[in-house]
Design brief:
Number of domains: 1
Shape: globular
Strand content: 15-25%
Order of helices and strands: EEEEEHHEHEEEEHHHHEHEEEHHH
Number of strands: 14
Radius of gyration: 18 Å
CATH topology: Aminopeptidase
CATH class: Alpha Beta
Largest sheet: 6 strands, mixed
Structural class: alpha+beta
Number of helices: 11
């Protein structure tokens, strides 16, 4: 099962809705193996061939603007029930070379509320981080984080939001690494008993805050898959600087090296269990 996980910046004072977090999670049934692919938000010239109506063949803006663009121009994506999600799923499917089954999108407040609904999450921190980020709702203080490297912290929803969104003293690529490690830590704690214990508050939060095309009858299967994920068999991959074909002359935004991206995706999905490379790339080793 492959799921496109989207985190939007929708919140107080934010114009539009940019998908600043884009992670494709590939979960392999019956093995405990998974791969999380982090896609940079600032990629440009992503192909929309046979996705959008002509003459639109490429998306010239940064990729995190595609969701809002497609929702604002549904006539370019006439067959889609949700033009924004469909455009992103199909564009990333082409970029990565794999089918994307479902998507789930959550905004700032929804993310924080979901973490709280699950009782928080334990995160092993690798870097010094002191920052505050955009408030998820009017009337709230800005979420703040102040952590030291080499320690494990229990984060509630607002602190987790600061952890995954902070770019202070770092860049988009280190932030993407934190986001992947957060997802890995969350998956480790997503056992069936915990979900049942928090089911009422979790269901209310999902209904209020999450947009998804996952059918209701597939949710139990998804929970079982996520709960079975083994951190030692879970790989993480960000398509950062080593996957840039060129930078656009006008503004220096990166254009992805599509063939190299797809080759890496295929190789990681086919890595044998307990191989040295899998161990070195695993979430347990890198988070």
């Amino acid at each position: 099962m492959t799921i496109l996980l989207l985190g939007s910046d929708a919140g107080p004072g934010q114009w539009g809705e940019r998908t600043d977090t884009m992670v494709v999670a590939a979960l392999q049934r019956g093995t405990g193996r998974a791969v999380a692919f982090g896609v940079p938000r600032n990629l440009v010239e992503v192909s929309l061939l046979r996705i959008a109506r002509p003459p639109l063949r490429r998306f010239h803006e940064p990729l995190n603007a595609l969701y809002a663009f497609a929702r604002a121009k549904p006539e370019l994506f006439p067959a889609a029930r949700d033009p924004g999600a469909t455009a992103l799923k199909q564009a990333l499917s082409r970029l990565l070379g794999i089918r994307l089954d479902y998507y789930a999108l959550v905004d700032l407040e929804g993310f924080a509320d979901m973490v709280d609904a699950l009782g928080g999450v334990d995160i092993h921190v690798k870097e010094r981080l002191v920052d505050e980020v955009t408030r998820p709702a009017w009337g709230e203080p800005k979420p703040r984080i102040d952590v030291l490297p080499g320690r494990t912290y229990h984060f509630g929803g607002r602190t987790a939001l600061a952890y995954v969104r902070s770019r202070k003293a770092s860049n988009d690529y280190t932030r993407m690494a934190r986001q992947r490690c957060f997802l890995s830590a969350l998956a480790q704690e997503l056992d069936a008993l915990r979900v049942l214990r928090h089911f009422s508050s979790l269901a209310d939060t999902v209904e209020a805050s999450v947009r998804t095309d996952i059918p209701l009858d597939r949710v139990p299967d998804l929970i079982r898959l996520a709960a079975a994920v083994d951190p030692g068999e879970t790989l993480t991959q960000t398509f950062g600087r080593g996957y840039i074909a060129r930078r656009r002359t006008s503004d220096r935004y990166p254009v992805a090296d599509g063939p190299k991206v797809r080759s890496t995706v295929r190789r990681l999905l086919l890595l044998p269990p307990r191989s040295p490379e899998r161990a070195a790339r695993s979430a347990r080793a890198t988070c």
